[in-house]
Amino acid sequence: MKKTLLVTLQACLLAGIASTSFAADKLVFGIALEPYPPFSFKSGKGDWSGFEPEMITAVCARMKADCTLNEMSWDGLIPALKSQQVDVVLNSLSITPERQQVIDFTQPYFFTRALWIGDRSMELDPTPAGLKGKIIGVQGSTTHSAFVKKYYGESNIRYYNDQDDILADLRSGRVDIMLADQLVVEPLLEKPDNSMLASKGVAPLDPLFGDGVGAGVRKGNDALRERLNVALQSLRDDGSYEKIRARYFKTDITTLQ
Questions:
Q1: Which residue among 88, 100, 209, 216 is least packed, with the fewest CB closer than 10 Å?
Q2: pLDDT of 105-139, one tens digit each?
Q3: Cβ atoms of 41 and 50 closer than 8 Å
Q4: Are 71 and 23 in contact (CB under 8 A)?
Q5: Residues 13 and 84 in one domain
Q6: Report field, pTM of the whole predicted structure over 0.70
């Protein structure tokens, strides 16, 4: 994405504002500082790019909303939403029963599986028995960490703030295996730096992984949730969603593979 998120938002919104007699409302979207390509990342100039910044731009244009980003750590996104520091989190939040107790979600806008990654020369059985005593790396405050914590109590679990740090420890042998988002880690396996790594299998479907990924809003904010749903559906209906998706993913992400 060659333009910055804010410049793109302003360009998209000018046409909408010009055609109305009232000013657009303002919305703040929370976004995690930790890079999570291809979903969200910053260029060398500090501009936000990726699938979800593009989705935010498109959704805000459809809602004729003046949108800005509030950057914070990943584990601070839901607290910021609850405390009204942000209005929406469209940043890879899986729709889980635990999260639905404290925030509300739109309909899912993508689906993904969890993938085990390890040294290609090692025989690893990614079951609780097979990873007994092994060191598992996982990003904290994620559905992956919840899954590992529940089922892999006899493994040595290391929690990280950043996925790049897990990969670095995996390459160096400080971690035996990692569990992460399939859509994120599969492209990384094609990079020369990760040539020693390989898939060790997809994790089984489990309620802890949730029912797709949706945009989060404060509990009870049904009006905003429905506006977001309408905007997301309009992007699907006219093909805009598919055009954005194709820039970042080779496969369909609207269903579980």
A1: 100
A2: 999 999 999 999 999 999 999 999 999 999 999 99
A3: yes
A4: no
A5: yes
A6: yes
